[in-house]
Specification:
The structure is a homotetramer. Chain A has two domains: about 5-125, 2-Layer Sandwich (Alpha-Beta Plaits); about 135-250, Alpha-Beta Plaits, CATH 3.30.70. Chain A has eight helices and ten strands. Chain A has helices at about 15-20, 25-45, 70-80, 95-110, 145-150, 155-175, 200-210, 225-245; strands at about 5-10, 50, 60, 85-95, 120-125, 135-140, 180-185, 190-195, 215-225, 245-250. In chain A, β4 (about 85-95), α4 and β5 (about 120-125) form a beta-alpha-beta unit. In chain A, α6 (about 155-175) crosses α7. The structure holds guanosine-5'-triphosphate (GTP) (4 copies) and calcium ion (4 copies). One guanosine-5'-triphosphate sits at the interface of chains C and D.
């Protein structure tokens, strides 16, 4: 049984800041957002968590193994180095979407995302005793994306195809299983999942093939942390490549 | 009449690199990708262009005002500081998708995205005489995203809504007008467009409201560069906010 | 009694790389070096260590609290994201210079800094049981640098003054006590020290005043980690400011 | 005859900020400082200027080729992405130290480095008509630093040697020629110089050998920009290596 600890990272009062006193240069905002994400990826990632850029002003992280002290330090360090601050909400549950529901509420309960009074919220519960099988990570990838799309279509039309596949998978996994799927670049999608069977992964792949016409394969891993589960998933995906299969478990 | 210069930025042979000799830590890949994007955003952005992260291994930039020398310098500088190199293809056209078609072909013609032999391609044509009205940028934004989604739903369900709005808009704008729409974080979408009328923007907004149930507004700007057009679009979007309108031109 | 764990971080075969195939753009090298240092500062710093830029191709870190696994992860992560790799040597001793001697030897024994065959060395011993008083950090600072130099002289002449003060202190502390003093920007010098008395700090300050004509003050802290000792030192330095004294212990 | 344009970059009111409300984590300050420098190195460097970290809170740049608009954009972009702002002063002169004198005064005249009221000063004069020989860059380097120091001594004792060589050179070049010498990492020193003869460079090298016991060699280049002059200097330094000489002009 999984026990996923998820953290919502929300930039405080970011919307108003982007247009005060005048709308800021878009490329500076893009730089700020992507570097903030990179810093989170290093902090969380070097502690074996995963963080996803999601909407950039709101990011989601799988943080099993990071406790309250780690979260407080992250918050302090970002506050020391950026012109904006972040709020953090944390939740734990067997079903990922439920963990995120809790995490989000902890931040929402302290005030609006666009409240000038609310800053650096740190709320929620942490998963104390970690277990080997707490996390399931599924790493999905498009079959032969290079040959079918990248080398053949213009980049925007390739992007539309990949994006449709992603949109289809994200909705399906969320509705069917309460799983959270994130696009991570290229043709890759990483999903934080509860326990699912081989058949359930085949169904997801079939669904995307039918709805969006995109052929996925998937490697699935488990571990005490996102990195452990995720690196297992990557190796399983390599197995798919060598075996020519669509679903492999680590 | 617009004359959009677009650059395709493609990381050379990136797929194989990510799994050689073993699959690399995902958070290191995420850090690499987002910092590479941030560096491009600073280089291109400080020359008044716009760059979009798209799939991160393939990025699209509006580069009016940047010539071949600028592109060569960017390529050299990335090669000096990253463990990967980039290829660049450039195209110019009245219709954005046509410019990108050309840009992509320049890179594709030199070899596959996953060819070990192909590196640091720099091909294409540049827009020589820039004119005031060469670029049209439309900055779309969701109405009251904070009140309707961010402060109310869990972050993943918010993300699904925003993402559906984006998927709907990106397809519509591409098919109806050959325009390229990019999600830039939060609830914001920036589109590189040809000349379009107020009605055509209203139609796009209506389409997204019907198909995805997401209410957009849009500010539209024009200029010799993406920044000029884009900052105009941002000011026009502020006009929408103050006037309570859905479409404003700078 | 102190037990300082020091790590030498050396970029592998960096000299040849900077001129292959042609001398690389200096500002790209500067960017690479300072970002590598920033990444080390975040990795080590968020685990309560301190790292100093020293010569940038060779950096020194106080790493009490970081074990072999942490060092291996740091090395892997840098290797994933930079065009260069790093070797790490670690030593522990009561006297800082002795710890560094050991740390350096571990790297030197594996081959030359400019050997194409030597890469990603990870050698040395780690301090297993950490104690409250393992580290002593002294934070030195110039009295009224703003009024005496920054606001009055041209920046280079200010720099010469500060730099002379630093050169004087670094030699004195190394020779008299085996302590390692690092310039950290502005008018600040941070020294990793063995146990020293108030008088010994006064002597150091007197020496610099006489030799270089620069008036320093110093706050001294102790702790199980560099951050703990260092933040104590910073508070002690604030005490100097409020009390008008030259040496304060946390 | 040279015409060097120098820019002083000063972080506004930085001292007080580092201790408000409490002393900030040193490694966050180090990260902030080195990333700010890296961003300046990219902005200035990609426009063929050079920037030196100096004291990090005050940096010096050779900015021939960058006009007032470039400086204003740099200032705006840093303000958009950092929790601190920067002031810029610019001066032009045949003698580098005179140019910096002017540049510094422009900032000093607007208020103290530690005044809460003074922010984002942008003052000074710009070199309008650039000429081929406006800049002289001398790239000094220690002979066989690897064999004599890095591979043999502990890193701190190596550092002391290099640092003594630097201290000696910086004072000599400033006093004898009004030239500004900056340590750039490893065993490298880059100097912004007026027109000097081969003999004058030999004298400088002799001085350092006698005073500090460090054997330097130097390549000298000229150009309309720092990069042009600097890349010439690097090639000339390679000539020293191949010819076994101590001074080479590009
Ligand atoms: N984030 C992330 N992206 C990856 C990873 N591996 C590959 N990619 C991306 O996926 C793109 C396509 O690479 P591949 O999936 O290897 O190529 P493909 O043509 O689809 O080939 P097959 O998947 O083997 O059928 C690359 O350019 C990367 O952007 C990974 O581990 N993480
Ligand atoms: N990239 C980018 N994102 C922005 C910009 N302005 C706002 N955002 C993002 O949009 C999010 C929502 O902000 P707003 O659009 O101001 O808020 P809202 O609740 O939708 O309110 P209205 O749009 O005024 O109805 C912010 O958190 C940012 O992520 C911008 O100029 N550029
Ligand atoms: N690295 C680092 N630098 C600091 C710190 N505090 C101040 N500085 C630097 O020191 C410079 C001078 O600041 P202060 O020391 O506060 O100013 P001062 O004029 O010398 O005044 P007093 O020290 O109070 O006499 C600042 O610009 C910073 O660069 C710190 O905690 N760490
Ligand atoms: N900033 C900078 N540093 C460099 C450059 N070239 C070399 N270095 C540094 O200098 C160090 C020593 O390299 P070298 O000077 O090639 O080595 P050496 O042993 O002194 O050999 P010789 O100079 O050839 O006698 C390297 O580790 C780098 O840190 C350069 O172009 N710029
Ligand atoms: Ca694939
Ligand atoms: Ca909005
Ligand atoms: Ca001071
Ligand atoms: Ca050398």
């Amino acid at each position: 049984m999984t026990a996923t600890q998820l953290t919502l990272i929300q930039i405080d009062n970011y919307g108003p800041w982007t247009v005060t006193p005048e709308p800021r240069r878009e490329m500076d905002l893009q730089t700020l957002q992507s570097r903030l994400f990179a810093d989170l990826a290093q902090f969380v990632g070097s502690r074996d968590g995963y963080v996803f850029f999601t909407r950039f002003d709101n990011m989601v992280a799988a943080t099993n193994g990071l406790d309250r002290t780690d979260h407080a330090l992250l918050q302090e360090s970002i506050g020391n180095r950026y012109p904006v601050t972040i709020s953090l909400g944390v939740g734990v549950d067997e079903v990922p979407i439920e963990a995120l529901e809790t995490a989000t509420e902890r931040v929402q309960d302290a005030g609006s995302a666009q409240s000038a009074d609310r800053a650096e919220v740190l709320g929620g519960e942490f998963h104390e005793d970690s277990g080997d099988g707490d996390l399931r990570i599924a790493h999905f990838d498009v079959n032969d994306a290079t040959g079918k799309y990248t080398d053949r279509l213009n980049e925007f039309d390739t992007f539309i195809e990949i994006e449709q596949g992603y949109a289809s998978l994200m909705r399906y996994m969320r509705e069917a299983h309460g799983a959270l799927s994130f696009f991570v670049g290229g043709d890759n999608i990483i999903a934080i999942c509860p326990d699912l069977s081989v058949e359930e992964y085949h169904d997801a792949i079939d669904h995307v093939a039918e709805e969006a016409g995109v052929q996925l394969k998937v490697g699935v891993g488990r571990g005490a942390t996102a990195h452990e589960a995720g690196i297992g998933a990557k190796h399983a995906l390599e197995d798919c490549r060598y075996e020519g299969t669509l679903v492999e478990f680590a």
